[in-house]
Amino acid sequence: MRWQGQKLGDVDEAALPGLESRAGVLRTVTTPDFAGMTFHEILSKSALNHVPGASRMPFAWTINPYRGCSHACVYCVSPETLILCADGRQRPLADLEIGDQIIGTERQGRYRRYVRTEIRAKWSTVKPAYRVALGDGTEIVASGDHRFLSDRGWKHVADAESGHRPHLTTANRLMGFGIGRAGRAVDISSPSYRRGYLAGMIRGDGMIFHGRYPSEHRTRDIHMFRLALIDDEALSRTRSFLEDEGISTHSRPFAMATETRSAADAIHTAVNRDVEAIEQIVTSPENPDIHWDAGFLAGIFDAEGSSSRGVLRISNKNEEIISLIDRCMSTFDIPHVIEPPRANGVVTVRVVGGLPSRQRFFAITAPAITRKTDITGTAVKSVADLRVVSVEPLGEDRDMLDITTGTGDFIANGVISHNCFARGTHEYLDLDGGSDFDSQIVVKVNVVEVLEKELRRGSWQHETVALGTNTDPYQRAEGRYKLMPGIIETLAASGTPISILTKGTLIRRDIPLLVKAAQRVPVDVQMSIAMYDDELQKAIEPGTPSTQARLDTVRALTDAGFRVTVFLMPIMPHMTDSVEVIDTALRRIKEAGASRVIYGALHLRAGVKPWFMQWLGEFRPDLLSSYRGLYPGVSAEAPKGYRQWLAKRARPLIRLHGLDGQHEDDYPVRGTWSGTSSTSPARPSGIGPVRTIRPTASAPAQPMLF
User: Fold this and answer.
1) 221-233 tens-digit pLDDT
2) Residue 48 neighbours by CB under 8 Å, 6+ apart
3) Domain boundaries in the chain?
4) At what angle do helices 447-455 and 484-493 cross, to 10 degrees?
5) 693 pLDDT higher than 60
6) d(CA 9, CA 29)
7) Angle, to 10 degrees, between the axis of helix 272-281 and the axis of helix 191-205?
8) Distance between CA 546 and CA 538 in Å, rounded?
């Protein structure tokens, strides 16, 4: 593994809040080989972790040389990427904060629909950048790890270095509405936009009155401006814009609410100079710029526009106003038609092209009334040309941002973008549960030295020590730090039995050491291999070694003399529980040389269930209702009836293949989905309880963990 060019960060006691009482920060390391990832090398005060007596875990001691997992992917996009917010506006990702309301999607019935969601976490990283170009001119800058929803499911921007993960090609079409070509930028804070908005709003829905009223003593000249609206957003914007022009207005109730009509408020003034100034402002300039045009469209839409059933319309009787709307729409290439006048003389300008054109109008003009810009509940049915035209590496690292949302996705530059699920680990260190688990890896560089001291204590009872109960000891970072050889040698030298569970093929490096250790103490090795369909394995475990690579590792360990147990966990209802799938898995496990199989049905912990269900809704929406029935409410495990049905199916097959041993009901193990040792935001962890089998004359103690 290459670590050239690593950088040492300044030692900072605040770099890892929560570790001060347990360890000292030695240094912080970044490296090009792990872009976007930081390794905090610490001096830990302890190596052995004692499991509380009240725990259900049937082992007493663990060692976790790492906290966090460097297998994991970091998904991220450029900070200037426009994110669709709940108010219908699109804002740069850099401007958004935790707690902001934005738009995501979820499947409802037959369709995926746009829904409101919340930003739950936000973080930054530096990663190699790619530019994705779409047929309508939309461009997105993102990392190669980022995923977008295509017509063929979720796809990464680029293939992994090792290959074999779903990624974007020119045969794909993204889902959403896009934003088209950037075109000319509109400055909605400019005086020109402000005057355009006032012209559209006041000419569309305002009233300006001049009158002369003679009386017995004198003749009174009356000058009055009034604007009455049911939407406070537009009324407040208009009043604020008038104040910026030096015009003061007063507010008052205009109409009370009834069963068929909303309440309306009004702003008004009877000051002659202010009324004259308003008349001057709303007059169309001889040579309006694009900022005035955008403001005018926003104002006339707030005054006279609608967005009913996804169709954007603006109606008015005045020929000059209709002509202005037509010209301004054409300025921004917004497709539209002018419908024939109705019997009352009202003419309607209708935007055509569906949601992409509608969202383009909103993005350019920025109207004030959010109820008109809301797309909540709209089905994801894009008519935009969102074909992938090219995916181009930019040849440089860039600052990237990502967010975690309640729906697991968000709308980036008008296309549906996957986010990284925040997981509940690392929080005991006061580190973020989303990005920090993947990107802030705590490495106990002195774990071997501390372990040697702890094992020399007279109180040490040489109980089995389990590795792999929290994070994978053979994650990628182990290739750099090489902590496991020292741990293995130290445990063996002290006469302490060893149990290792991993998904990582890096364990093959240490086979010679494990062989030597096994000559002194019982050594158990378990390999977690749950998926035997390549596509499903890539979807659930995209960051882990392939199924075949892990089976080859089982063969290498078996050839070295180890009795390897394979954890066929979790077995997933309706996906991996058929006779054919289980039989195929057992046949491949047997061919790899494993001695036994432990199986178990999917177990959904409370903190994991929401994002598993989100994953299911994305990859197998047809199974979502079934899983909700199997795992209702807070239920974590499959119903007893299903587990009994699975036992009747799995046990005979295990015996048939000669892989029989103790089964689920004999060992307190469960197939679990967890954030603690996952190697990607949406995959099973493969970590769970251990069972120690008391040694017999022919078999050493065999701690089992999953």
Assistant:
1) 889 999 999 999 9
2) 61, 62, 63, 451, 454, 455, 465
3) 7-72+424-705, 82-180+384-418, 191-373
4) 10
5) no
6) 6
7) 100
8) 8
Return the pLDDT at 421: 45
> Would you state the pLDDT for residue 496?
95
Tens-digit pLDDT profile for residues 23-34:
455 677 765 555
Please report where in the chains the tokens 């001049």 appear, as a residue.
210
Q: Does residue 167 register a pLDDT over 80?
A: yes
Across 55-72, b (16+ Cβ under 10 Å) vs e yields eebbbbbbbbbbbbbbbb
Q: Give CA–CA dist 269/276, Å, rounded.
A: 11
Instruction: Evaluate the CA torsion angle 636, 642, 644, 645 in order and state its sign.
Output: negative
Residue 287, CA atoms < 13 Å, CB-side half-sphere: 0
User: Do residues 172 and 150 make contact, with C-beta atoms less than 8 angstroms apart?
Assistant: yes
Fold topology of 191-373: Endonuclease I-creI (3.10.28)
Residue 176 burial (C-beta neighbours within 10 Å; 0-12, 13-18, 19+):
buried
- The CB density around residue 550, as the number of other CB atoms within 10 Å, is 23
Across 260-289, average pLDDT:
93
Q: Average pLDDT, whole number, for the chain?
A: 81
What count of other Cβ atoms lies within 10 Å of the Cβ of residue 701? 16
Q: How far apart are CA 246 and CA 243, in angstroms?
A: 5
Which residue is listed with tokens 């795992």? 631
Count the residues in the chain: 706
Q: Can you spell out the DSSP letters for 454-502?
A: HHTSTT-----EEESSSS-TTSTTHHHH--HHHHHHHHHHTT--EEEEE
Does the model's pTM come out above 0.85?
Answer: no
pLDDT of 704: 24
E runs forming strands in 333-424: 336-338, 347-351, 388-405, 409-412, 415-418
For the record, the structure tokens of 140 come out as 């997105």
Using one digit for the tens of pLDDT, what is the confidence trace for 132-166? 999 999 999 999 888 899 998 888 899 876 566 78
CATH class of the domain comprising 7-72+424-705: alpha beta
Q: Are 178 and 386 in contact (CB under 8 A)?
A: yes
Residue 433 is predicted with a pLDDT of: 39
Which residues, in sequence order, are bridge partners of residue 208?
A: 225
Which pair of tokens denotes residue 164? 């074999």
Residue 262 CA to residue 185 CA, distance in Å, equals 36
CA distances from 220 to 31, 223, 250, 274 (A): 81, 10, 21, 18
CA distances from 330 to 46, 282, 356 (A): 70, 21, 16
pLDDT at 698: 29
pLDDT (tens digit per residue) in 243-272: 999 999 999 999 988 888 889 999 999 999
> Which are the contacts of 361, defined by CB distance < 8 A and separation ≥ 6?
297, 301, 312, 332, 334, 351
Tokens of 263: 């309440």
Determine contact, residues 646/601, Cβ cutoff 8 Å.
yes
Q: Rounded distance, CA 694 to CA 696, Å?
A: 7
The topology (CATH level 3) of 82-180+384-418 is Endonuclease - Pi-scei; Chain A, domain 1 (2.170.16)
pLDDT higher than 90, residue 610: no
